[in-house]
Design goal:
- With 403 residues, this protein is of the alpha+beta class.
- 38% of the residues lie in helices and 18% in strands.
- It has a 7-stranded mixed beta sheet, with helices on both faces.
- Helix 1 (19-44) packs antiparallel against helix 2 and helix 3 (72-81) packs antiparallel against helix 4 (89-118).
- Bound molecules: phenylalanine.
- Phenylalanine (PHE) binds at residues 224, 226, 266, 304, 307, 344-346, 370-372.
Length: 403
């Protein structure tokens, strides 16, 4: 059995100061320096060690090579130059200077850079190494590279973009508005008068401590994207055609089909002579573009304070094709009716135009239609997901299925 004892490098005394001996000694010094700096490089970047241990190792390395009194660079002078025969002194001096001029700055730079890394938390180092292998000296270049995982659109965003895209092709622009809204925009200007019972249907989350303000200025989390109808009409004169994607909130406890935070896409078209026929034609076209040309649409009378007349739009269930059955089982998404409700809509109530009359929306001159759909619900149906909460929990295993 052979035992190898590895002795740490020390600067040797030179015997004959011949050219060959000097060359070998310098090469040996440089090899030791290179080996040890690769080793320290690895350790400083090792997330299995604590920052304190990594900093301590780096400090020892620095003292060993660069230390003022006992550093190995210093030993070159003490051991090689001082003992050199007088006729070799000049040459040895030049040689040592050359080593110092090339290797010393590199090592100082390395220590400085690695000091920053040594201080990082292990987690930070781990995340660094996924993208950028900092231990360049020890890379096995035959290994496949560390791939940065490519992100994917969240299924809700994907659905939202798809719906918005259908309307953009029809000439609609995109508008957005604040999630924290005033009572005025969320209710009053949409024809929900103060204390009107229709407000109760919205399960509003109010911002606390607003009691001292006039009611219309009080802040709340918008319960629908409809306030952006008013905000846009205040800014843009008719004709307009816009879609408004966005987040809304309601005081609904989370379950498989409800969430206190969800997404809507609003639509608004205002022009001269817009009729209910335009509303039906536009939405029928959009539903076919989204769910396939065989989908049928069906409008049922409904009520919203800001549209008159109002309707709910149903499409034939794209799970069971309208039969209400899946084989011999009842179709659950449409509750066996063969129809699925997808949005609320209607002709803009003239009372709403009264709030923006001064910007060209004279209810005697213009008319329009509006609609609002639940993006998340559509995504659920589209992807056959049975629990709304999955969309909001951020579980990568779920989200990867849509990548
Ligand atoms: N804002 C309504 C809701 O959230 C939907 C809607 C929008 C209805 C536009 C009619 C017109 O329920």
């Amino acid at each position: 059995m052979s035992v190898q004892i590895i002795v740490a490098y020390t600067v040797p005394k030179l015997a004959d100061y011949s050219e060959r001996e000097l060359d070998e000694a310098v090469a040996h010094f440089r090899l030791a320096l290179k080996t040890e700096s690769s080793e320290i490089d690895l350790k400083v970047c090792d997330p299995a060690l604590t920052p304190a241990v990594r900093q301590d190792l780096l400090r020892k390395f620095r003292d060993r090579w660069l230390g003022r009194k006992s550093g190995l660079f210093g030993h070159l002078n003490d051991l090689w130059l001082k003992n050199a025969p007088p006729d070799r002194k000049k040459h040895v001096g030049q040689l040592i200077n050359e080593v110092k001029q090339t290797d010393l700055p590199q090592i100082e730079q390395l220590v400085k850079e690695r000091d920053l890394i040594a201080r990082q938390s292990s987690d930070a180092i781990r995340s660094l190494q996924v993208f950028d292998d900092v231990t360049t000296e020890s890379v096995d270049i035959t290994l496949p590279g560390a791939r940065r995982p490519i992100g994917a659109e969240h299924p809700i965003l994907k659905t939202s973009r798809e719906i918005v895209g259908v309307f953009q092709k029809l000439g609609y622009s995109v508008a957005e508005g604040p999630v924290v809204e005033t009572d005025y925009y969320n209710f009053e200007a949409l024809n929900f008068p103060p204390n009107h019972p229709a407000r109760d249907t919205q399960d509003t989350l109010f911002i606390a401590g607003q009691g001292a303000k006039p009611q219309r200025e009080r802040l709340l989390l918008r319960t629908h994207t409809s306030p952006v109808q008013i905000r846009t009409m205040e800014k843009m004169r008719p004709p307009i055609r816009i879609v408004i994607p966005g987040v809304v909130h309601r005081n609904d406890p989370p379950d498989a089909s409800h969430s206190p935070m969800f997404n809507q896409i609003e639509g608004l078209a205002v022009d001269t002579n817009i009729t209910f026929g335009d509303l039906k034609g536009t939405l029928d076209y959009a539903m076919k573009a989204l769910f396939g040309s065989s989908v049928k649409t069906h409008f049922r009378p409904s009520f919203f304070p800001f549209t008159e007349p109002s309707a709910e739009l149903y499409v034939t269930c794209f799970i069971c094709g309208g039969s209400g059955k899946r084989g011999s089982d009842p179709c659950r998404p449409c509750k066996q009716t063969g129809w699925i409700e997808v949005l609320g809509c209607g002709m803009v109530d003239p009372n709403v135009f009264e709030f923006v009359k001064d910007n060209g929306y004279d209810p005697k001159r213009v008319s329009g239609f509006a609609f609002g759909m639940g993006t998340d619900r559509l995504a659920l149906l589209k992807y056959g997901v049975d629990d709304l909460q999955l969309f909001f929990q951020g579980d990568v295993r779920f989200l990867e299925m849509f990548g």
